[in-house]
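Give me structure tokens for this 125-residue protein.
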Amino acid sequence: MEGNDEIIYLNVGGVNYTTMKSTLIPPHGPVDFFSMAPINPPYDIKHLNKDKNDRYFINRDGKLFRYILNFLRNPKAPIFLPDSLREKKQLVLEAEYFQIWELVQLIEQEVQLSVEAKTDAKKVY
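Here you go.
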């Protein structure tokens, strides 16, 4: 396959993912995944290191990357986030790293709602 229809095999922090290049470089999507900070110009997938199984290696949190990838696959779908507030905050850092600002905003809104709900639950009336 050529161009953006190519299947891409990723190793993110030891967790393997398979996706389409078009998911990572959407034509009008939220981000060009391969133009992110860890890659130097010219921005191209070929500049990523590969692991021993020929998967592109990204040294980030592999568990949380599933939320990033699901968002990139369909940014208009309802987003499912980790249950814990701590993981949500970590996911904000991951989304910031990949410069997916729309996702950062969605997560921060969810974190704020979680904090407010916790605060309201602690109030004594």
